tRNA 5-methylaminomethyl-2-thiouridine biosynthesis bifunctional protein MnmC
Amino acid sequence: MIDWKENGTPVSREFNDIYFSPENGLEETKHVFLKGNRLEERLSSSETEHIFSILELGFGTGLNFLAAWQLWRNCKNKSSLQVLRFTSFEKYPLEREDIRKAISVFPELSELLDLFLEKYKLLIPGCNTFLFEKENLILDLWIGDAIQLLPETSGKFDAFFLDGFAPSKNPELWGENISLQLKRLSNKNASFATFTVARSVKDCLSSAGFSLSKIPGYGRKREMLVGVYESEPELDLNLIPFLRRIGSNQIPKKATVLGAGLAGASIARALAWRGIQVEVWDDHNALRASSVPMAVSHPHITKGETPTSLWTLRCLGNSIRRYSDLLPKDSYQISGTLQLSGEDLPWIRLEEGVKAHSLSKESAELRTELGENYPEESKGIFYPSGFWTDTPVLTEKLLNHPNIILKQGKVGSIFFEKEEWALFSENKETLNKTEVLILANSFGIESLLQGLWEESPFSLRSVRGQLEILEDSNIDSEKDPIHVGEKYLTPSKHGIRVNGSTFNEFDLDPNAKSKDREEILEYSQNTFLGVHWEQIKVRSDFVGIRSQTPDRFPIIGPIHSPEPFRKIYSGMGLPKNRKKEFPFLEPQKNLFVFGGLGSRGVLTSLLGGEILAEILLNEPLSIENSLYSSLHPSRFLYRKIRNQE
Ligand SMILES: Cc1cc2nc3c(=O)[nH]c(=O)nc-3n(C[C@H](O)[C@H](O)[C@H](O)COP(=O)(O)OP(=O)(O)OC[C@H]3O[C@@H](n4cnc5c(N)ncnc54)[C@H](O)[C@@H]3O)c2cc1C
């Protein structure tokens, strides 16, 4: 992928072109991309409200990203901006050590390089999010071909760094397909800068609506190109109408979140670090799922790429990149997960799935021989990055932010009046009034919506789960992987292991049952044979309620009132209407939901919370458009219409 010239210049093997010159590469970046986009002035501005977004083509060694980050650090204190987002595309991602070697010639970037490389892991095709909360910075690194990935990107950007290899060596990255995507993704007055003044590049950008100018290039390069998109931003016709977002610069200063489990804590945190004051209401229900003492997380691989596999892979990388910032060392462990194949997880699915997702050994390894620790002829998959989490600690740490206030009380109903949401207790006393309301109260969401509309925009099922908390006197069991079959067993943490769990939709009994305990222990003792069961005893049981959607994906986003949705979008699924342009229907004002986290909420809540904040604050999304359509709350209304047509 990378070759090195004698003087240390990194050269791309694919394109036979240099990444940058070690003598003056950083200065060139500063000249072409930072000055070319007037970034210092714009990042220091006190006029822009919330976010500044940069989109780059050609991540390479990350030099431009690190230089933009360095500038952001210098401007942040003078600026009214809360977030810098840097979205970049790279077809051939470099190894960590190659990036280190390339960038270490610029000592002024060494601190940022370390912070970045600490998170540079578990990259998979598509969008990989890096959140640097203390820096108010997000990097979305899209791995793959920009031509295919750009249509999957949503949101609007303020500046473009066009830094692919030279147009003569990599013409696809400079063609019309790309410039039309840049147009689609441009905010009003979005700028671009590039080192090339090639005629073909000028023509494409100009016909996409950018006004162009040539300015002096860096060093011996006489000229470079900059430009501005002066028109109003385009409506995003790439998306089905109800997924579109109408740009708004009205950023709320305050929001109320209902539910202080992982869903509520994650969205509250995502808003709080962006400078929004959040009040979180919760009634401390004993069946709160987020009280599960230790939860396990690993990806769910399907034969081909599906929303399930992509979503869980994205969430896994995202959680691991964030945990070291959020959690004390003893409240999670990346111990690896050994998952057995079986009736529910056929071997063929694993074999084909690993190939289809181009998973490296860092992400997944098929195991055909498991030895004596599992029943004869068992096969499985090992996820080196499978991890367990102390869920109550994660919830507590997320909520521990100066912009978050916790309130206790049961919300019995909600009502929208005079541009505000009012929250009432069961006795009809007003608990809170708020401009923006986020329902993250799991099994309590549907009953609140029933008070607003006759028909529910989605359905949520409550599923009871029981697990066993075990005491293990064998200290070596801390080094075990997580064992997963039809049940799972964590390694021990200070002598405690968790053995779960049951699923029951029809019996929501809050009390622990000996029948469930026997079911869990019997399966585990007959399957996880390497465990010293004779040194283990049951300490206690845990019962909680999961809230699950029919397709087992969470619901994340705004909520549409069912009746107007049906009126506006009926006929949308008919072949004769394939080309018909359906209007955008405003969702219910300032009402959002994050729920239906099902049995994977510990894995998915962190990324889910960030995505909801991105939607609420009109930021570019850190997942693919197609994946977002699987998470949007109105997908159920849409499917209902299509099924009836
Ligand atoms: C036994 C069991 C084992 C599990 N194991 C795993 C695992 O290994 N890995 C994994 O990823 N996930 C696991 N999960 C799932 C995970 O715990 C959940 O997906 C996640 O915790 C859900 O978070 P939540 O915030 O949506 O819901 P909850 O944690 O249930 O929080 C909802 C909160 O809303 C509050 N609330 C509800 N209604 C109201 C109201 N009207 N007014 C005020 N407050 C209200 C409740 O008191 C509660 O605190 C498990 C779940 C169970 C039950």
The chain has three domains: 2-234, 252-288+394-459+551-644, 338-387+461-548. Residues 258-264, 281-285, 288-290, 292, 295-297, 410-411, 440-442, 444, 465, 467, 500-501, 544, 546, 595, 597-603 surround flavin-adenine dinucleotide (CB under 6 Å). The radius of gyration is 26 Å. The longest helix spans residues 307-326.
